[in-house]
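Interim report, section 4.2 (structural modelling).
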Amino acid sequence: MGLKGRDVVSILDLTRGELEALFETADKFDRRGRARYRLLEDKVLALAFFEPSTRTRLSFETAMKRLGGETIGFAGAEATSVAKGESLTDTIRMLDSYADAIVLRHRYEGAAKLAAEVAENPVINGGDGRQHHPTQSMIDLYTIRRLFGTIDGLNIALAGDLRYARTAASLALALTLFRPRHLYLVSPPQLTMRPEVLRVLDEAGVRYSVHGSLDDVVEELDVIYVTRIQKERFPDPMEYEKVRGSYRITLDLLKKGRKGLKVLHPLPKVDEIELAVDHSEYAAYFQQAAWGVPVRMALLTHIFGVEV
Amino acid sequence: MGLKGRDVVSILDLTRGELEALFETADKFDRRGRARYRLLEDKVLALAFFEPSTRTRLSFETAMKRLGGETIGFAGAEATSVAKGESLTDTIRMLDSYADAIVLRHRYEGAAKLAAEVAENPVINGGDGRQHHPTQSMIDLYTIRRLFGTIDGLNIALAGDLRYARTAASLALALTLFRPRHLYLVSPPQLTMRPEVLRVLDEAGVRYSVHGSLDDVVEELDVIYVTRIQKERFPDPMEYEKVRGSYRITLDLLKKGRKGLKVLHPLPKVDEIELAVDHSEYAAYFQQAAWGVPVRMALLTHIFGVEV
Amino acid sequence: MGLKGRDVVSILDLTRGELEALFETADKFDRRGRARYRLLEDKVLALAFFEPSTRTRLSFETAMKRLGGETIGFAGAEATSVAKGESLTDTIRMLDSYADAIVLRHRYEGAAKLAAEVAENPVINGGDGRQHHPTQSMIDLYTIRRLFGTIDGLNIALAGDLRYARTAASLALALTLFRPRHLYLVSPPQLTMRPEVLRVLDEAGVRYSVHGSLDDVVEELDVIYVTRIQKERFPDPMEYEKVRGSYRITLDLLKKGRKGLKVLHPLPKVDEIELAVDHSEYAAYFQQAAWGVPVRMALLTHIFGVEV
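Predicted structure of the assembly:
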């Protein structure tokens, strides 16, 4: 149980072996179906969501409660002491003294790292800044592994907003722990992957290429990982409309791809995927969201050092 | 256990027999007093409240927790993925993959029906649009039955906003499953019961009459079911003030009625009932609210197919 | 178990003996470390927080859940029936019929007293108005007792906003149940302790003196209890800036004090304590916050009459 008592700030805090052990535990929970366990019945998990979130927050809450544990916390900082001007470190110290571990979502880069330094108990990054969302990446990797039996050897595209979407950056980092065949980074020029992420890919020897359109590469792909392009990123609304349209995932596009091609998305999605795709064999994102519960159950049992 | 695994979108989804079985289970829970059970300890209930609610949300939460189950969810859509533009169906799919059943409150007509189509697990309508609030109607019926020993043969007035208050419309529909002696629909002309509800009353052969004032009918009544008249319904504030005054339930009014006359209200109330009524023998609304817990406990056990 | 079934509106609702019994129970919980018990597993606690709060709300929630009980409730009144205009008494009646006890936080003086009159089940004041915050005072007293082995015989300063900070007034009242050597009331002239609180000190024979600066008295002190001075109290922002600076707790100030001097604060703090103090031997406020859980666990078991 190598993760016992540890913080999870970045997906790179884990080794491939630790991730694989996690996935095996998630397999067990998934096989057993919905149930409640008594594995963590003496534990309380704090959910400190300074930024809106539904999926991450509710799936952690579900995971903890299905394990017999309890949660406390807040969603949105309005009704909390943060609104009174309390520092992040003071809020974290408080939660650390109430709960046995903390899941943190925060808009600022480095918030989870700071929290991990302050707290004696484990801190799990539920997404901070523009780069880290390790538990989402665990789910993404788990989904690929479940669908293809492996992560190694696959052609994977990350498409959409690669600059500001923390899920895309975090998955790129996560893939350096595996051996994908090729990584296709597909985005409008304003939203290309940040140099610090590319540097990690380079160092890890991950082969990748940069593209402006999915049309150019769709025939090569096993997986398309889509992220939402947010209007706020574009000073000019016309520019946004143009970009949005050309990154829309349609059935027509997907039909040009290989047999077995799958579309993943961290969700929520707005209209970046044509509705018809939802009901096609390409759509893996609802299943991906559902696997959020067993993967987070696995993580919690490993962090708390409980045998499943 | 005819309700096992079923959705509850409208009160008309249930038969009289199913309602009566439900009330018998509620009787059992009520007789035993406050306790916690282990009946649903392997279940998680999602509370998806897109609209503000205290009573419905907290009584479902209390009911689920007293049954040993757990809840997840949100109250108000601000801090959720809905604020990011996610569709209702995507949100429901997510909750459906986390929880074992969903309670939905939504401002739009048909939201619960749509959710029930999307979700594999049972969806319970916690109030949507202008017409459906089946669990409130269950509590209303249960209250009448507890107070009078029967619902059949009673003279029941629905008073106040019959056009926009979903509780009034839903109770009117509910009463078609029973044989009230007469239904008095009492409202200002702007707020009369919608034709589609009247049509269901007609088809069911429920005798009803339409009135502009409680004064005209109070002597006939066993039950007055009051709903709040909302200021927003009136373009002219003067008009609202006039209407509000003439629909106020006062002790003087009630004293003109039969012995045993009872006032019900789904709550919250603002000033549509004179405060002196709260402490009189006429007031049944606090007791009605309290029965929300055993009735919702009964519903949850029937939906999950658990023997009580 | 003298507290069984009782309301806690003011710290003066308890005797010294009852507080000491409470502290002994808190000692037990604290000694055993973090755990979950089954002591209150048949109980539901309503947390009715009409005003923002993190520490009080989350530590009550943690306390209840570590005791095996459940919580329901709301934080902030926006998404509740209060926003629809419901009266406090109606909201309390509802919660009273759902839960086994209620913790109330409200901005209005007397809200908890009113709630206690309406509710059949115990009401615990989680802070109301400008004067009462009994559970915070229990934690403050417990902290002093743990740090010094006693409350009697100590020189204690209350510093900052003594007029509007309910924690300071409540602790002053609480100290009348003990025999502190001397109480130093240190505040800007606009924010002196209210006459009604001074009257209670006078009646109890507590020796106190009023000061404008900590510098004058720091050498005498065992405990400095600091409260936040809020900008909103000052019509003139310049005046606020001046006052704020002269009430800042710095390491330099504390070094002038006795050996063993401790700084307490109900938290959250903003910048009224120099950051360097956090890591010094003077800082007791993080420990004080942590003891919020065992003290509130003790209170809940005493209120519910459960043997620990």
